[in-house]
């Protein structure tokens, strides 16, 4: 009998077709609605492969419901939605989609940095709401990007790709990372510093770390208090790295100047989240990797990982 793969979100037909040659495929067929938990728990019961999104929490309960599961393929580079330790104990391979989304996520990070610094959303709303009556000297003035110092926290693939963009804009670049990256330092001119120094000296802080319990609330009240009053925080990694209550206080009390947020502690973010009411916050709904080409590549790689891991040949991007 053919092995069964369950896919937790509607994927393009071409991608599903490739898997259909070797496996029996079942799929949650909605694009804009995440699979309900009870359906997921039921569907994994007889599946050997699971292709999931970052919206699904694959924890002990799911793994216990899936006695036949061999491979979990996450359609994301981050995999903090999966209990990898528990999966490993059970001999289940976990895969992700590194590399294919690096440049697209770096583009969005830089776009968000610029939109926040130059108040693009606020300026657009100002015009559309009919408030634009005249040009005036200090109207909607923001922060310069060229010549400013960018502090990148987390200098992996995406952090380095952001540094390349920043170098092109004439920024000075500092970074904090667990290990130093001499080759990337040479390529981008970025300099390694301790976290507190990066926070103190930067005009922009870009968070680009993978999320784990070790970096939960890495940026909290103390860290925000080290930042310049004119500084801008940009988070395109995971919401849980920044303590949102502390960030709200820092923005409200003007201890930092603005924030650009693509990610939130709880997603989708509650529209009543106080951060969304602040004028100095630019918010996006987790769209870092959302270009058509990149999302297709992510889906293809997720399918390929699952296929190769199940058939036992070819390249597999395993995280465990
Ligand atoms: C990821 O891949 O982890 C992003 O957050 C979504 O593309």
TrEMBL record:
Entry-linked Pfam families: 2-Hacid_dh, 2-Hacid_dh_C
Gene Ontology terms: cellular component: cytosol
Transmembrane segments: none
Entry keywords, A to Z: NAD, Oxidoreductase
Domain D-isomer specific 2-hydroxyacid dehydrogenase NAD-binding span(s) in chain numbering: 110-288
Domain D-isomer specific 2-hydroxyacid dehydrogenase catalytic: 8-320
Top-level taxon of origin: Bacteria
Keyword NAD attributed: yes
Molecular function terms from GO: glyoxylate reductase (NADPH) activity; hydroxypyruvate reductase [NAD(P)H] activity; NAD binding
Family that this chain belongs to: Belongs to the D-isomer specific 2-hydroxyacid dehydrogenase family.
PANTHER family assigned to the protein according to its UniProt record, in alphabetical order: 2-HYDROXYACID DEHYDROGENASE YGL185C-RELATED, 2-HYDROXYACID DEHYDROGENASE-RELATED
Name this protein carries in UniProt: D-glycerate dehydrogenase
Species this protein is from: Siminovitchia acidinfaciens
């Amino acid at each position: 009998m053919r092995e069964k793969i369950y896919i937790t979100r509607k994927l393009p037909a071409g991608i599903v077709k490739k898997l259909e040659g070797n496996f029996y495929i079942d799929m949650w067929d909605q694009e804009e609605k995440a699979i309900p938990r009870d359906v997921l728990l039921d569907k994994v019961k007889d599946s050997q492969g699971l292709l999931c999104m970052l919206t699904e929490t694959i924890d002990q309960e799911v793994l216990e419901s899936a006695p036949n599961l061999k491979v979990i393929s996450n359609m994301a580079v981050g995999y903090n939605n999966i209990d990898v330790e528990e999966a490993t104990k059970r001999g289940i391979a976990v895969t992700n989609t590194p590399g294919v989304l690096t440049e697209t996520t770096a583009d969005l990070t830089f776009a968000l940095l610029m939109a926040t610094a130059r108040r693009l959303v606020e300026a657009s709303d100002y015009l559309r709401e009919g408030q634009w009556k005249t040009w005036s000297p200090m109207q909607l003035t923001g922060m310069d990007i060229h010549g400013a110092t960018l502090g990148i926290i987390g200098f992996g693939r995406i952090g380095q790709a952001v540094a390349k963009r920043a170098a092109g804009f004439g920024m000075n670049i500092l970074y904090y990372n667990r290990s130093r990256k001499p080759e990337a330092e040479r390529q981008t001119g970025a300099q390694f510093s301790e976290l507190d120094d990066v926070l103190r000296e930067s005009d922009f802080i870009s968070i680009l770390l993978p999320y784990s319990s070790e970096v939960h609330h890495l940026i909290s009240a103390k860290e925000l208090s080290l930042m310049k009053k004119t500084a801008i925080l940009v988070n395109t990694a995971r919401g849980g790295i920044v303590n949102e209550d502390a960030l709200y206080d820092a923005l409200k009390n003007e201890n930092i100047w603005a924030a650009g947020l693509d990610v939130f502690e709880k997603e989708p973010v509650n529209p009543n989240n106080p951060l969304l009411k602040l004028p100095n916050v630019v918010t996006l709904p987790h769209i870092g990797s959302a270009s058509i080409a990149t999302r297709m590549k992510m889906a293809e790689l997720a399918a390929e990982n699952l296929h190769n891991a199940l058939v036992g040949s070819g390249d597999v991007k395993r995280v465990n």
